[in-house]
Structure prediction request, 256 residues.
Amino acid sequence: MKEGQTLWSRDELILAMALYCKTPFGRMHSTNPEVVKLAGLIGRTAGSVAYKLVNFASLDPSLQARGIKGAYKSSNLDKEIWNEFYNNWDRLPYESEKLLAKFENTTIEDLVGISENDLFKEGKTRTQLVKIRINQSFFRKTILASYNNTCCITGIQQSEFLIAGHIIPWGVDEKNRLNPQNGIAINALHDKAFECGYLTITPDYIIKISPLILKQKTQYTLDYFTKYENKKIILPSKFLPSKEFLEYHNQSRFKS
Prediction:
């Protein structure tokens, strides 16, 4: 550590890891407004925050598998924080947002935009509603950032058209509901087809269309389904879809 530098605290590292998840790989730099904002909140330079994101990149198995090295000078605490949350994805969103509210000197309800009327309408406790909102937002931001706001099937880059879809459905595997490797960025039509088993992705990341769709020789099926058969998906820059989860979808959901 250089003279005058201070060690990163646990709270700072949790915020940095959350930002790593929600930031496209190509935007982990000191001019990114979100990097600049976090730097201001925790009293560090934008350059140091950007470098910390690259430290986390060096610990990401999906990047290691693709030969992307990141910055190797990660600390023991970096590794400890990474391992703690990488193996418990249900904890990072809420804990990081609580810390962010603290650093911004606001309430977590105001941070995520929840009013008393929302609580009354939805009939949930405050903590339940906050966690639901945070989890949904975190998962979507993480998945879209990983795929650079690009549909993995079509290449559409209009974020309003994209869904952070689950490979193993939300109601089937509670432990992996927020695991980024259980998500894909996909347009609404193909997300519904994936959910219903008319489309799947193999563990080799190849698109397969159900024979029930392929046998429909219409222009619609040709334009929206047939032409994607046996094509490779557009891979994310980080958090590659789990081969194990894709195998589950192939075996348990796909209408072959």
Notes: The longest helix spans residues 126-146.
